[in-house]
Amino acid sequence: MARPRPAAEEDVLRRLCRDAAMHTVRRVPFGDLVAAPLQFYRDYVAQRRPCVITDCADRWPAAELWSGEYLAGKMGDRKVTVAATPNGRADALTEVAGEVLFMRPAEREMAFVDFIDGLRRQRQGPPAPVLYAQKQNDSFREEFAPLRGDVPDDLAQVGEHIFGGPPEAVNLWMGTDATTSSMHKDPYENLYAVVRGSKKFTILPPWEAGCVPYTKHPEGVWVEDESSPTGFSSKKLGSSVRWVALDPHDPEASVKHPRWAHAHPLHISVDAGEVLYLPSLWFHEVSQVGDDEGHVIAVNYWFDMAYDTSFWLLEATRRLADLVDSGDISSDEDE
Q1: Residue 234's beta-bridge partner residues?
Q2: pTM, whole model, 2 decimals?
Q3: Percentage of the chain modeled with pLDDT above 90
Q4: Residue 271: which of 214, 192, 215 has the closest Cα?
């Protein structure tokens, strides 16, 4: 049970969030990165400051070519891994039969042309499953290899100069506006290029981690089930997951989680042709808006983060929040 929060310690967290708050996200032409990667590192990476990079992905052949018809012709029957859910929320806290579970998606291996057809059918409404290509194990260079010629290496090469090594993974994300991610964070420096449609990011810096509530819930997985009205049933996995217990768009969020009132989330629209630089460990929740075919497509580059002094300062902030809550500053539990 959490002990009462001492007013002085609570005020330290409140003032930290206020004093370190970022209120804007700058826009940076891609040419500036090419001309002065060290300056970009100093202004953004070293300060863990996100920005939107312009004049980059809109010049890729993919920006012009990646219609559903073109992609189906290029990929054909090639198998891709697709997440399937009844509600468009994979890897998210979901109430199932009166109990809140951390639900993982059902996974399909399906021909790409069938995936495109599935996206068309889900736009017609339920009970079609919500499909989303979201495999994160270097999917663009593996499963979507026939499309690599449509994406130049310019962003990856600049990222290699800035972050000190090649990308750990390059992933392709494709779905419709029926998909929304829950708030989470990643241990990677992220260059996220939107090719079709737009992405709506709600982001929060890691030094405001004390404003973000976590709870532990049983872990489950969606199972496709033709006998169910939704097309899915659920299965418990016998494990539990500690996850962010917050919807940043909930008007009652600050009532349910009082410390959220101290947070300074930023809301960013990343449109087709733009690239979001999202520093490692920034919290983010993402929704999306489709193009004229209803598709949203992005390619992102994950670079290893540096476990440097700034990381440990952020970790100290997180542990301080734990101490205020419960007196337990251990960091052994995986988040």
Answers
A1: 222
A2: 0.90
A3: 77
A4: 192
- Report the 10 Å Cβ neighbour count for 187: 12
Quick one: tokens of 38? 């060290």
Rounded to whole angstroms, the Cα distance separating 62 from 103 reads 33
pLDDT single digits (tens) 248-259: 999 999 999 988
CA angle 172/291/264 to nearest 5° reads 75
| Two structure tokens written together for 216 | 């532990």
Rounded-to-integer distance, Cα 312 and Cα 69, Å: 48
- pLDDT, tens digit (0-9, with 9 covering 90-100), for 91-123: 999 999 999 999 999 999 999 999 999 999 988
- How many CB atoms within 10 Å of residue 177? 17
Token pair recorded at residue 318: 């997180």
The answer to whether the beta carbons of residues 212 and 199 sit under 8 Å apart is no
Residue 279: count of CB within 10 angstroms of its CB: 21
Q: Nearest to residue 102, comparing CAs of 255, 188, 205, 214? A: 214
Q: Can you tell me the distance from the alpha carbon of 285 to that of 247, in angstroms, rounded to the nearest whole number?
A: 9
